[in-house]
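Q: My labmate handed me this sequence with no annotations at all. I'd like to see what the chain might look like in three dimensions before we decide whether it's worth expressing. Could you predict it?
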Amino acid sequence: MRIDLADIAGRPGARGSFAISELIVLEGECELAGPVVGELEVENTGSLMLLRGRLRAVVRANCVRCLARCECAVEMELEEEFATQDTEREVMTMDREEPATSAIEDYVLDVGELVRQQLVASLPIGQFCRQ
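A: Here is what I predict for the chain of 131 residues:
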């Protein structure tokens, strides 16, 4: 999913809210039962673009006890900073640390990989079909 930040890029203090519904493909034995959904808010702090949000997903995986397929709800919070033209050179953000894989280009933010990484980090170590 791509978010156009052009409206808030040149206005310090401006904010934008965006509904997310992103289909993510997971590698391994887990799969999503539907899209990752939630709300993201982007704020222009004057020197950075600050992304915050709360997302939800339902993950299918095998029960670690009986190997039956089961579903587990996953909630995650997202917070990330992105550099703007006004960001001081010494401030390191994710897009400056790895410019070849930057999620933001021409004021368009691609949140697909960011959401996938956050989802993988939020997955439980093991799922159980019954508690």
